[in-house]
């Protein structure tokens, strides 16, 4: 604690030249906005975050109606994949742009792009057009996610940042719970196009609040004219798009070792090499080298990448487990999953009382260590068990991950000045998003492999006159985990399931949780070995 009462965990030392940094961090948006104006700006940030958070859950409930109206069933997965690709690959681009031109213009442009995409989605005339407009939506969604998190750090000093981060976490939690219900109501009583039109008034209010109340002070320019690495931005976008497309579609649209997969991975690696060359030569690179040279940011990038991987296990596979193995109705199965969204923001809000005593790294280590044990414990639940058992684990898992994620985000944002905060925030969000994509591909392959091993060779008929289990598994063997499990779950939903089918699904989900526990253990090791014991926090 310094003389003025501001908490510090040491003095920041630049990772490049080793010289102690004395750059002030008092020229963020929070200083220009003032405490009396932070309320409307925070409301705008929460509305903008709600737009991004609601998107996936509210759209998923309308897929049957969209396909029935527009056709294109074989393409509908790109409604989600296309949006995910656009958000992920634009995060580092928007982060650098916000450091160069300021948060406000980037957030306004991103919100406008998101709303334009929403309007066009509502007007789509076929599945191809809808997918294209979803990609446009995602181009704006990348600005919403990254810039909102960065502005949250600009608005509040270190001691108050947990408050705004907890509010944003609450937005995600509420969206996860209410999104499916809201989507269902709109589809049932209006039309699927309203799931996109509902974004317009919410986004318009957020835009008005940002334009009216967010005032960023003038900043010192390092150069007379800001230089934008457009070549690097294009290369990052192309590389990320190709590699993520290979991961998202591999095993779905084509086999992993097929020509399309190998061609995409080969092109992605070539583009990755091009990114390295371009960024090394750029004056103001989109992904600067210091993001990986500084131990703190590099360790958090890797740790949150592992978080993205492990989150796939409960988010994708637990609802199927709850319905197929525990025999719960869809609503009850959704509750088993949603309980972690209740404990996560509460734990995140309380984490400040822990990291102020033991530091950012040790708090995160405590959280991810507990998460690893909880994930490891899942396969040891009694079979078939009671619904309260996985629900209790999920409640505790949410608390553990809240203790893990928030200190790392706040910690990294507190080790950089205003001019680097957008890039640093975007890098950790990019790694988390990429981890989720990797996790979906890896755990899908694991689940399919277990199902094929348990049932594929038996050809057992799961029901009266239904398709053989082996055929069901083979039909879904090219899909990600959710799709493969759905192939078997449909047999269970018909009321004609054999006990071996339930056992096989339980084993597949257990294997996925083993993998998630391994990802948590990897994050634990990264924090212990790579991250500094005390983060080099800049003085507020």
In words, what does this structure look like?
This protein has helices spanning about 30-35, 40-60, 65-70, 80-100, 105-120, 125-155, 160-190, 195, 200-215, 230-250, 260-280, 290-295, 295-325, 330-340, 340-360, 360-375, 390-415, 420-455, 470-475, 480-495, 500-530. It contains 21 helices and no strands. Mean pLDDT is about 80; it is low at about 1-35, about 220-225 and about 455-485. It is globular, with a radius of gyration of 23 Å. It has about 550 residues and is an all-alpha fold. α4 packs parallel to α6 (about 125-155). The protein starts with about 30 loop residues before the first helix and ends in an 11-residue tail after the last helix. It is about 75% helix and about 0% strand.
Task: Based on the model shown, name its key terms.
540 residues, mainly alpha, disordered N terminus
């Amino acid at each position: 604690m310094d003389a003025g009462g501001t908490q510090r965990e040491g003095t920041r030392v630049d990772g490049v030249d080793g010289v102690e940094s004395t750059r002030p961090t008092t020229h963020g948006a929070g200083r220009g906005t003032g405490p009396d104006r932070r309320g409307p700006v925070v409301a705008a940030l929460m509305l903008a975050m709600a737009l991004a958070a609601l998107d996936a859950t509210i759209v998923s409930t309308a897929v049957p109606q969209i396909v029935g109206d527009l056709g294109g069933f074989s393409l509908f997965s790109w409604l989600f994949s296309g949006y995910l690709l656009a958000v992920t690959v634009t995060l580092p681009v928007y982060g650098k742009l916000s450091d160069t031109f300021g948060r406000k213009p980037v957030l306004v442009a991103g919100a406008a792009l998101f709303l334009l995409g929403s309007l066009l989605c509502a007007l789509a005339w076929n599945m191809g057009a809808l997918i294209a407009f979803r990609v446009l939506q995602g181009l704006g969604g990348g600005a919403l996610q990254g810039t909102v998190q960065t502005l949250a750090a600009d608005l509040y000093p270190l001691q108050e940042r947990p408050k705004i981060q907890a509010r944003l976490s609450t937005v995600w939690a509420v969206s996860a719970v209410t999104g499916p219900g809201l989507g269902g109501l709109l589809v049932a009583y209006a039309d699927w196009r309203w799931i996109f039109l509902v974004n317009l008034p919410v986004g318009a209010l957020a835009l008005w609040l940002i334009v009216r109340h967010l005032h960023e002070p003038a900043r010192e320019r390092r150069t007379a004219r800001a230089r934008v690495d457009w070549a690097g931005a294009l290369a990052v976008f192309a590389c990320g798009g190709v590699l993520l497309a290979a991961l998202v579609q591999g095993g779905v649209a084509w086999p992993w070792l097929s020509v399309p997969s190998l061609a995409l991975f080969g092109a992605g690696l070539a583009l990755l090499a091009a990114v390295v060359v371009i960024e090394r030569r750029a004056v103001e690179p989109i992904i600067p080298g210091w993001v990986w040279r500084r131990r703190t940011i590099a360790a958090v990038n890797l740790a949150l990448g592992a978080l993205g991987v492990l989150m796939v296990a409960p988010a994708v596979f637990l609802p199927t487990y709850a319905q197929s193995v525990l025999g719960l109705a869809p609503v009850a199965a959704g509750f088993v999953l949603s309980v972690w969204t209740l404990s996560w923001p509460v734990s995140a809000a309380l984490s400040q009382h822990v990291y102020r005593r033991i530091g950012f790294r040790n708090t995160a280590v405590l959280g991810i260590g507990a998460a690893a044990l909880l994930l490891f414990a899942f396969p040891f639940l009694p079979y078939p068990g009671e619904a309260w058992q996985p629900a209790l684990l999920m409640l505790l898992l949410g608390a553990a991950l809240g203790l893990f994620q928030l200190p790392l985000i706040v910690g990294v944002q507190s080790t950089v000045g205003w001019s680097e905060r957008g890039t640093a925030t975007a890098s950790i969000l990019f790694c988390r998003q990429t981890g989720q994509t990797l996790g979906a591909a890896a755990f899908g392959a694991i689940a399919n492999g277990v199902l094929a091993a348990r049932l594929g060779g038996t050809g057992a008929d799961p029901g009266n006159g239904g398709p053989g289990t082996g055929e069901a598994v083979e039909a879904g063997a090219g899909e990600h985990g959710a799709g493969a499990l759905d192939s078997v779950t449909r047999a269970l939903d018909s009321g004609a399931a054999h006990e071996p089918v339930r056992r096989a699904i339980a084993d597949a989900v257990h294997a996925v949780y083993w993998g998630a526990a391994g990802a948590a253990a990897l994050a634990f090791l990264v924090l212990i070995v790579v991250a500094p014991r005390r983060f080099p926090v800049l003085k507020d």
